[in-house]
Predict the 3D structure of the following.
Amino acid sequence: MKIVVLDAHALNPGDLSWAPLEALGSCEIHPRTEPADTVARAEGAPVVLTNKTRLHRAELEQLPDLRYVGVLATGHDVVDAAEASARGITVCNVPAYSTPSVAQATIAMMLELTNHVALHAAAACEGRWTASGEFCHWEQPMTELAGRVLGGVGLGRIGQAVARIGAALGMEVIAVSSKPAPPAGLLLELVELEALFERAHVVTLHCPLTESTRGMVDARRLARMRPDALLINTARGALVDEPALDRALREERIGGAALDVLAVEPPPADHPLLSAPRCLVTPHVAWATRASRGRLLDVATDNVRAYLAGKPQNVVGS
């Protein structure tokens, strides 16, 4: 059984073992694959694993031996699942592996925007505290989160984890969900999307990217936000109208933003949000702790093993 991994580097830059996957067949593991090389590398392989390398109709129709695509992520828009199904190709993803890490990163971003830890550490290390002559020196006002409103757009596993941490910090939690009631044991209020943008001191995005959610954080919704409100996005970059957010930040119409994802990754060097005031941008790393990546590799391997045994699991669309 030939197994091809098209883009292994993000999942495993060298600190994890491919041995369990290699035990299932003859593996070709490529750190990265350019679009022009996708078909040549996947040719003749019944099993292909991909993270961001696209397998859409143009590629699938040139791969008659392909029978299984394993997506090394939860989101699976890199694969044309409908076209794959029509060709008898099973597509599986890896749900829930990153929940603790992404929730932790979301809260880290919220705390950095409200406590400015890096700024104040730099003030000490670079001598500004010493020069001030004061026992207590701060360079940005800090914000207590207790009693403030945390608004989560989406109540999947990550949204629920963030809601629980927010509640533990003493925040009032509101959320938008496709379900009619919050999960058992989760103390929060379900609201409409417009109300969430109006009420929340912190808006955090935890929803999938679809045609209905693309650009959902637009100029109109940004205008509804409180002037001190914060926006956090660890979901998908294209959920946010980036030029509109840039304008809102530069015109001081919202308090700040923290983004782990952008619409184009990596961004161009002149991307305006990289220099926008009160805006933190991290390079799509919320998911990437070693523990999270280890779970991803384990489940991706289990998915291949289950498929080869005739009992596929985590099938997209099932």
